[in-house]
Amino acid sequence: MSSRFAPRPTRTTVRGGETATPRSAARTTGIRRTWTPQAPVDLALTLGPLRRGPADPTFRTTPDGAIWRATRTPAGPATLRVALRRSTAEAEAEAWGAGADWLLDRLPHLLGATDTPEHFAPRHRLVAHTWRRRHGLRLTRTGLVMESLIPSVLEQKVTADEAYRAWRLLVRGFGEPAPGPTPAQARMHVMPDPRTWSLIPSWEWHRAGVDNKRASTILRAVRVAARLEEAATMDPPAARARLEVIPGIGPWTSAETVQRSNGAPDEVTVGDLHLPGIVGYALDGDRTADDARMLELLAPYEGQRHRAARLILLSGQVPPRRKPRMPRTDIGLL
């Protein structure tokens, strides 16, 4: 790593062939862990769904192939840097902040150790071809609900660019600087804690382009954040049910959240504007497919339908665009 980063503590060998620094090490210098996946892992494919747009202040990639995350754990804010050593396929991670231990303890889950790709059997030529090309895809399991739930709510019924802008402005404006030596000029931030979310003035939501419906949904969620975080330890259907108790959180939002927090291979997203047409076109040439038709086409992948949908999206086999993109929303008119 570049010399612009603070010195690191000396490594200490631990069981399982892993290495780590002592847990008493100063958080300003970070603690480290290495872990060897049992199968190849593509970091960009595996952790990419955690990124909310190219300027996400909680997520960065660097030219050396490393991925950086700033997040809020149950133990407090933390920053994680993870990279793969090509010569040995080891994952090397370093973390800073109060939640550093928490993040490193769960590094294998983040990189797909609990994923079950061996249960996946391609049923279509396109899916089989993409599976061979993208064999490093693993479904991440963050164990964190709110960090995926809040941006998913922001993405309801608006364009991706609008949602990414809202997330960026709110996290930078009300979050806190990420601990540790983050990449130069990255300006990484940890998202606000539940109380801070609840205190954001109405005009700041408006400034970020967030209408009252989405803002109110987030405010209802952060009031019971501890209960919602418990969903990360539940079976995916039970986790989704827990989330959907909150008015404003429906099947689309709960699926988008649980896919990331729980590493759920079968929780396919319904209610999406584009996904049914993409799946229909890729598997049956039907660009007009609705949710019912999409689920019918994905039925052979029961238990792994989310993975199948991810592979279809990664294939690039999308229908030619015939209708205009979703219009931008002017919340001043709402």
From TrEMBL:
Give GO MF terms, alphabetically.
alkylated DNA binding; DNA-3-methyladenine glycosylase activity; DNA-7-methylguanine glycosylase activity
Q: Which InterPro entries match?
A: Alkylbase_DNA_Glycosylase/TA, DNA_glycosylase
Recorded GO cellular component terms are: cytoplasm; protein-DNA complex
A GO biological process this protein is involved in?
DNA alkylation repair
Q: Keywords on this record?
A: DNA damage, DNA repair
Instruction: Write out the ranges of the annotated region (Disordered).
Output: 1-37
The protein here is known as 3-methyladenine DNA glycosylase
Taxonomically, what lineage is the organism? Bacteria, Bacillati, Actinomycetota, Actinomycetes, Kitasatosporales
